[in-house]
Write a structure and sequence with these properties.
One of its GO terms (molecular function) is 5'-nucleotidase activity. Keywords: Hydrolase, Magnesium, Metal-binding. Belongs to the 5'(3')-deoxyribonucleotidase family. The chain has 512 residues and is of the alpha/beta class. Among the domains are: 158 residues, Rossmann fold; 157 residues, no CATH class. It contains 19 helices and 17 strands. The strands form 3 sheets. Strands 1-16-15-14-3-9-10-13-11-12 form a 10-stranded mixed sheet, sandwiched between helices. Strands 7-6-5-4-8 form a 5-stranded antiparallel sheet. A two-stranded antiparallel sheet has the order 2-17. The longest helix is centred in the last third of the chain and has 23 residues.
């Protein structure tokens, strides 16, 4: 800052001199006495000093509940929950378990090279919300405009340069039909990309990238789509094995949460109805819930549905709901005409759940971790209110709260504005200065990205835009938080108000 202080002092001194001589047009005299480079440096220094004089934003509460849409809890009569990563939060050991089981399946069933057994899971490589291009074998990050974030595209474990990315896709923006499939034609025309929308997909993608990197480094030809299908089928076919292992060792894989029972008790005492709808099998859910809540956990729930097969549970209308015999570990063939507390149900549809209970519309608040299979259909088709449980929020908010991040983010905003305001200068010396600013901006953007994840950055934003994952989350979730227990900090009559969103044309402040 000494250079800035010296330059500013010199200019201010000259300005005072001009003012004593009653010079009217000081800008012309300044221009004649200072080079364009010095004037740009002066603007930079002024902006830097202004940034340093601003107070840093207050810390965000990592246990807060954040509103995308106004939600009045006094209107909610029924609370529904998913299980995995909603009520049960898993330790990193579960990711390692799924990875290892999938890797073993690749070796045993698909006869992949034995050296793959030495490939260890890299827990900090991938994040949720990425896209995997099945045809091209690339793992990449898209923003809410379907733009590729350069610097966040990987083949295997190796970053792909922006020039190669543009050569592959011919554009920075990917067509929506390529990402989501063309909804105007037959359903068979599926998208070319898979969105990693839940946390179970992270170890699966870790295995995919590890194996791809092995093939590339050893110059082994492979078809990306075949590798994708083999890894996907291997990991998913291991879920029943994973369920049995976790059910026998819940303390090793599930994080304790003593406040969960307190929340259920609060809801029950206030005459709220509770239900559980999960894709997981009963024995797996029961073992986890007994650890989290106690052996009496079923007494809190008016309806429990396992093996729901979401999202079909929310989209199909004719699949019958069945009674599950937990002692015989099978379902009963009789028709279900009512839903009773204490009985475990199997499959079914949301239509039957609503018809048999009378629960519908805005009186229902459903919590899940998956923006599509948990939240999208219930809000779009059935008018339920929705809450997303996003485990990554704790890490993201703790990172946002660091002083270094706040300082870098503020300066990045102001530096970007400085570049925008002076981009019309065309003189070589001006372009050189602005080039220095651009280089500093790139450094800041990469710094604020890498603190979340070295490869892909934040789950919620690219360099400046919200991610594709954020767009879907904000569209389908009325509220979101890191853990169900955070709701204990709010009364059951609390109204969550979203912050007034600032549109680009509304304010000019750097800090909005």
């Amino acid at each position: 800052m000494s250079m800035c202080n010296t330059l500013l002092s010199r200019i201010l001194k000259l300005n005072r001199s001009f003012s004593h001589k009653n010079v009217k047009n000081t800008s012309l005299i300044q221009t004649s006495n200072f080079s364009t480079r010095e004037l740009l440096k002066e603007a930079y220094c002024r902006t830097k000093l202004k940034c340093r004089s601003k107070k840093l934003p207050q810390d965000v509460n990592p246990r807060g509940v954040f509103a995308c849409n106004e939600l009045d809890l006094s209107e909610v009569k029924v609370y529904g929950f998913d299980y995995d990563y909603t009520l049960a939060h898993y330790k990193p050991s579960l990711e390692h378990l799924l990875y290892n089981l999938g890797r073993d399946m690749l070796l045993d069933k698909y006869k992949y090279p034995s050296e793959i057994s030495k490939l260890e899971y890299k827990p900090d490589f991938a994040v949720r919300g990425l896209h995997y291009d099945i045809e091209k074998g690339l793992l990449l990050k898209l923003d809410s405009f379907l733009q590729i974030q350069f610097g966040a595209v990987y083949r295997g474990l190796t970053p792909v340069a922006p020039e190669e990315v543009l050569k592959i896709y011919r554009n920075r923006i990917i067509p929506i039909a390529y990402v989501e499939g063309d909804t105007r034609v037959h359903k068979a025309n599926r998208s070319k990309m898979v969105h990693l929308a839940d946390l179970f997909s992270v170890p699966e993608m870790g295995l995919m990238c590890n194996v791809a990197e092995y093939f590339i480094r050893n110059q082994i030809d492979y078809h990306p789509e075949i590798l994708f299908l083999d890894v996907k089928n291997s990991v998913q076919s291991c879920h029943p094995i994973m369920h049995k292992i976790v059910a026998k060792n819940v303390e090793e894989y599930i994080r304790p949460n003593s406040d969960l029972k307190k929340y259920f008790q609060l809801l029950q005492e206030c005459d709220k109805k509770l239900f559980l709808v999960t894709n997981s099998p009963y024995h797996f859910v029961n073992a986890g819930m007994e650890m989290l809540v106690g052996s009496d956990w079923r007494e809190f729930f008016d309806v429990v549905i396992v093996n729901a097969n979401k999202p079909k549970f929310f989209t199909e209308v004719s699949r019958p709901i069945r009674v599950f015999d937990k002692n015989a570990n099978t379902h009963i063939w009789e028709k279900v005409t009512s839903l009773e507390k204490g009985i475990i149900y199997y499959e079914g549809t949301v239509k039957q759940l609503q018809d048999l209970t009378g629960w519908s519309g805005h009186q229902v608040l459903y919590f899940g971790d998956h923006p599509y299979s948990d939240l999208a259909d219930v809000t779009l088709e059935h008018g339920w209110r929705t809450g997303a449980i996003i485990n990554e929020l704790t890490h993201e908010i703790n990172t946002l709260n660091t002083q270094t991040f706040k300082e870098n983010a503020n300066w990045l905003q102001m530096l970007t504005q400085l570049i925008e305001d002076h981009q019309e200068y065309k003189e070589p010396e001006a372009l050189a200065v602005i080039g220095e600013w651009m280089a500093e901006r790139d450094y800041l953007r990469n710094s604020t990205k890498s603190v979340f994840n070295p490869q892909f950055g934040s789950v919620f934003r690219t360099y400046h835009n919200p991610t594709y994952f954020s767009r879907r989350l904000f569209r389908f979730a009325d509220i979101y938080t890191s853990n169900i227990r955070n709701l204990l900090n709010y009364s059951l009559t609390h109204t969550f108000y979203p912050r007034r969103g600032v549109m680009p044309h509304e304010y000019g402040s750097y800090f909005v």
